[in-house]
Design a protein that fits this description.
Layout: E1 4-10, H1 15-26, H2 28-33, E2 36-42, H3 45-52, H4 61-78, H5 93-105, H6 110-123, H7 131-138, H8 144-154, H9 157-172, E3 181-186, E4 191-195, H10 200-206
Parallel strand pairs: 1-2
Antiparallel strand pairs: 1-3, 3-4
The structure holds glutathione (GSH).
Glutathione binds at residues 14-16, 54, 57, 177-179, 196-198.
């Protein structure tokens, strides 16, 4: 029997991946006590779009206009505050390859690095497609020597192939058409996909974890 597990496929170029990452980390103790393992897995969202035939939502003007409301609401809900950087979107291959290497070579540093990269991109508006910005962010988690090692590894065929193989697997085998994408194992030998940072209540039902989110509190005294 497989354990209950959430495979979380995320890219730092995706604000919705940032929301999902923060939420899962905030709830890590509760998930652990419910016997659910969480694995964060770097993917290249641009590659998922190409492979699935999808287009980024902001390329459709109506979705771009709506996303301004949705983004503000999500930030309030998840307790984050940032503006979309002027350079958005970026080609996120460099930071995602660094993460793919760190996952292999320094697995205990993967979550801290995701956190620093998300903050660098969204809160501090550092363009992580530029090597100097990526190096500066890496230095918040690693020594100078390790940063050189990670930057060199990100240029190797092995790491390039690792990121593209994961990206291909999640889109072709696990049905992904965007990020964050989740492949969730129910602990009974089955697994299902979930898309987005706004589907955790369905995920908790699927995993049979008690939760209170989305319960209406009422009636409000004096209002009825
Ligand atoms: N409703 C989802 C939206 C997530 C979303 O729009 N993700 C973007 C990347 S940041 C994407 O890949 N979208 C593909 C699509 O909507 O088809 C959420 O709240 O998390």
């Amino acid at each position: 029997m497989q354990p209950k597990k959430i495979e979380a496929y995320i890219d730092i170029v995706s604000a919705y991946s940032y929301y999902a990452f923060s939420y899962l980390r905030k709830n890590s103790a509760a998930l652990k006590s419910a016997g659910v393992e969480v694995e964060f897995i770097p993917v290249f969202l641009g590659g998922i779009n190409v492979s699935s035939g999808n287009k980024p939502p902001w390329t459709l003007p109506a979705k771009a206009a709506y996303s301004r409301y949705d983004g503000q609401r999500a930030q309030k809900y998840f307790g984050l505050k940032f503006n979309v950087p002027g350079f958005f979107p970026i080609v996120s291959l460099l930071p995602q390859r660094c993460l793919a290497y760190v996952k292999k070579a320094h697995p205990d540093k993967l979550e801290p690095l995701f956190d620093i990269f998300f903050q660098a991109m969204w809160v501090h508006h550092h363009d992580l497609s530029k090597p100097n910005s990526t190096k500066t962010a890496l230095l918040k988690v690693f020594t100078g020597e390790q940063v050189a090692e990670i930057m060199a590894a990100a240029e190797t065929d092995e790491i390039k192939k690792t990121l593209s193989a994961t990206t291909l697997r999640v889109s072709q085998d696990l049905g992904a058409f965007g990020c964050p994408w989740f492949w969730v194992h129910d602990g009974k030998g089955h697994a299902e996909p979930f898309f987005g940072s706004d589907r955790f209540h369905f995920m908790w039902d699927y995993l049979e974890i008690p939760h209170t989110d989305l319960e209406l509190v009422g009636p409000v005294p004096g209002k009825l």
